[in-house]
Structure formats: C-alpha cells, structure tokens
Amino acid sequence: MQKTAGIHHITAMVNDPQRNIDFYAGVLGLRLVKKTINFDRPEVYHLYFGNESGQPGTIITFFPWADQLKGRIGTGQVGVTSYVIPPGSRSFWESRLKKFGVKFYKTERFGETYIAFQDPDGLELELVEREEGPLNTWSFSGIPTDQAVKGFSGATLISAQPNKTADLLEQVLGLECVGQEESFLRFKSGGELGNTIDVKLSPSVRGLMGAGTVHHIAWRAKNEEDHLKWRALLQEKGFYPTDILDRNYFNALYFHEEGGILFEIATDPPGFTADEPADELGTKLMLPSWLEPQREELERSLPHIEVHVLEEEME
C-alpha cells in the first residue's frame, strides 16, 4: 500500500503581506524561504515560510490579498495548524507570545499540552512539545535554535463527513488510526514532521473561504514516479484528481475529499533551491519563466515587503 510521509505544506489566505511576514518571521521566527507570486493570479504574492531549507513538513504558504473578504473556519477546511517545538521550550514560547501581545490558552489532547492562539488574520495555530523531528537550524529575531519551531506537528481537519475523511486518510493515504478521544480521531503517518492528523467528529458551522482560513493541505509524494502512482490510485478510488501541475518547487495535483476539504499531493523535490541558492532563499522576488517578461510591471504593482526584526524585539 502507498503511504504518504505526512504533510508537505499548508496554504492559507490572509490580507496584508507585511503583517503576515511580521508574524510568521518576526514573532514565530520562521524563515521566509520563497517570495513569489500566485501563478494563477500574478498580482498576488505567494509567500512560503519554513525551516532553514524549507523542508517538506515545515512549509506554510500564504496568498495575501488585501481585497478578499474575511472567511469563516468550519467544515471543508483545515481548522487548526499545529507546530512542534523542542521539549522544554513551552515556557519560552508562552513568554514570547505575551511579549508580542498574542493572546493564548492551553489545551490538552491525547495526553499532550498545546498552546493555542491565532495569527493576525484569525488562523488557528498551536504549539506542542515533541522529541520528534530535527531542530530548526534557522535562528532569527532572538529565537535560539534549541527553542525554535521545528515544523508542523500536524493539523486538525473539520470535515462535513468526518467518517469518510477518516476512511480516506487510512485507506488511501496510508495513515494509521491511533486513537479516539472525546470528539477527535487521531491518525499518524511515518514522517518525523507533519505526522499527526486529528479529525474533528463533532458538528461545526460550514466553512467559508476567505482571509483567515486554510485554502488547502498538501501531502508528501517521494518523487515524480510516486506522484504518478498517487494520481492513478486516486482515479482508481473514484476521486477526480487534477492534471499534474508544475509549481517550480514541487509538482502538484489537487482533489476534493468527500468531507469538502481541498487536498493536494506534492512532490518532495526539487525544493526551494531550484531557482536561488540556499543562503539567499526568500531575499528576491522569484518568478516562473513565463512571467519573467512581466517582472518590471509586477515589481511596480506588488506592495513592498521585507523581513525585519520587530520593535518589540529591541525593547
């Protein structure tokens, strides 16, 4: 049976690109590994944040568009994006969130303590301590590497048909159901990061796409050969995957699972050094070859953004 190693990336909708950078780089200390545009709407940035190299399982991406309406988190969406932090670092993160005025609360699930909070657009986030996964060697904004966010711990899915979503995770994607607690089913994959998926069983409001919501969640394929096998398997199981699309840093295919959530399967290679050196990731606007003739026009129309240390860090 084919099995995905876990989450490749998660993509969300937000309003302001600079505010987005200030939070994910300035507060959470993630690296902006790619500054590009939405290939389907080139007037909108596509920003990627992750660990030092943008390893699969660490990547959160954003379409920041000022004019989009506020969304509503609910069925047919990823409800919560969860990050893993090193054991013993929870108090560091509680202090850091307080320093930047981020309200949070603690919650328990499957014997683990989570710090739950929202980003400036209302996306639901969590931090949880785990041994799994390598340390993030990227150090920014006063966060030492032994306290830094490693990558995803996983995600909570809010499905309109949770049992069917659970069946897909287990019978198609190859995750293992490892338990049920109150209104959650938990699944695990074999990867070190992005390996824990909770499916919410209790009813929720219908999700509305917009700022502050997740657009899709992507699962890992080992390479192009594995990707083709995933597409064939999805067709065999009665899903309707898209054609395979070249996203420069991975190949992608998309399909809606029966609970309404947009799933993607993305290849691990070639990665973010496909078009710029590792030590320069995220420093320049990178465009696909077919948009290079429009570079000057795009650079004029896109808002100026930069990664910088926030004032609170210098106080």
- Main β-sheet description: 8 strands, mixed
Structural class: alpha+beta
Q: Give a count of the beta strands, DSSP E runs of length 2 or more.
A: 16
Number of helices: 6
How many structurally independent domains?
1
CATH top-level class: Alpha Beta
Overall 3D geometry? globular
CATH fold type: 2,3-Dihydroxybiphenyl 1,2-Dioxygenase, domain 1
Task: List low-pLDDT spans.
Answer: none
The strand line-up of the biggest sheet is 2-3-4-1-13-16-15-14
Radius of gyration: 19 Å
Strand content: 35-45%
The sequence of SSEs as H and E is EHEEEEHEEEEHEEEEHEEEHH
**End-to-end span in angstroms?**
54 Å
If you average the pLDDT, what whole number results? 96
CATH architecture: Roll
**Name of the CATH homologous superfamily:** 2,3-Dihydroxybiphenyl 1,2-Dioxygenase, domain 1
Q: What share of the residues lie within helices?
A: 10-25%
Pfam families: Glyoxalase
InterPro entries: Extradiol_RC_dioxygenase, Glyas_Bleomycin-R_OHBP_Dase, Glyas_Fos-R_dOase_dom, VOC_core
GO molecular function: dioxygenase activity
Organism: Metabacillus sediminis
Give me the secondary-structure topology.
Blueprint: E1 7-14, H1 17-27, E2 31-38, E3 41-50, E4 59-64, E5 77-85, H2 90-99, E6 104-109, E7 112-118, E8 124-129, E9 151-158, H3 162-171, E10 176-181, E11 184-188, E12 196-200, E13 213-221, H4 224-236, E14 245-246, E15 250-256, E16 262-270, H5 295-301, H6 311-314
Parallel strand pairs: 1-4, 5-8, 9-12, 13-16
Antiparallel strand pairs: 1-13, 2-3, 3-4, 5-9, 6-7, 7-8, 10-11, 11-12, 14-15, 15-16
